[in-house]
Amino acid sequence: MGMNIPIILYTHTDMKDVWPMAFGQIKKYLVDFKIYVAVNATDSLIPSEFTTILYDDTLAYTNRWQQILHEISESTILFLHEDMIVLGTPDADLIQTYLELIESKKIRSVKLIFAGDKASPSFIHPTLVSNEFAKLSVQPTIIGKESFIQILTEAGRKNIWDFENSVSRYIGDFMAYVGTETKRGMFHYDSYVFPYIATAINKGKWNYTEYKQELDILFSEYSINPALRGVV
Q: What is the pTM of this model?
């Protein structure tokens, strides 16, 4: 039985070298989810079992997402980008719980990673916390489609970096935090609810600084030569 929440993977054909790893890990670990691939052009590398949504890449990042979301029939989504490589099976029960909390208007969004050092626990659910980082970003997030469209509309025409900086925190925005996550890098922790690399690409190169062990395994599995893109 599939999950009631679809996953939208946002990508672009200039990231095709990442696709074998990104798609392969999705097929391995996200078998219970409906997968949309939002991309600028159709491509034979996109698995046939995924649903392709085309966007116009002459548009700004925020306008591309508006175009994508109008093609989605479901009211709540889980979105991620192609360089957020899935590392394990998500906690289906918690994701279903977050979906129900959003659809019942008790919360607006759940970012599936914990960032920062301190956070306030929520009375709504023991795994939901908030601090200044508990706002929409380009990290994997569960959010209502209409809420996402509203945020994009308020942001206006912006690229991906300016969009992140422009988003304000809302009282209903939370992060998922079980409480025993391992810190990774300076600002964030590994996600137990939705295990993934955050992120595999840093400034155009493979993120060896934080994820060398995980990436080396994936390079071998998917026959990827990291020297072609470079590492940082």
A: 0.96
Domain enclosing residue 87, as ranges = 7-199
In a domain, 61, yes or no: yes
- The pLDDT-based confidence of 1 (bands split at 50, 70, 90) is very low
Residue 188 CA to residue 182 CA, distance in Å, equals 9
SS3 3: coil
Cα(212)–Cα(217) distance, rounded to whole angstroms?
9
Tens-digit pLDDT profile for residues 28-72: 999 999 999 999 999 999 999 999 999 999 999 999 999 999 999
User: What's the number of domains the chain is made of?
Assistant: 1
Domain assignment present for 208 = no
Local structure of residue 168 (DSSP, 8 states): P
Asked whether the beta carbons of 63 and 70 are under 8 A apart, the reply is no
* Cis peptide bond N-terminal to 199, omega within 30: yes
Residue found under tokens 């034979």:
44
CA distances from 47 to 26, 57, 196 (A): 10, 21, 20
Is residue 183 domain-resident? yes
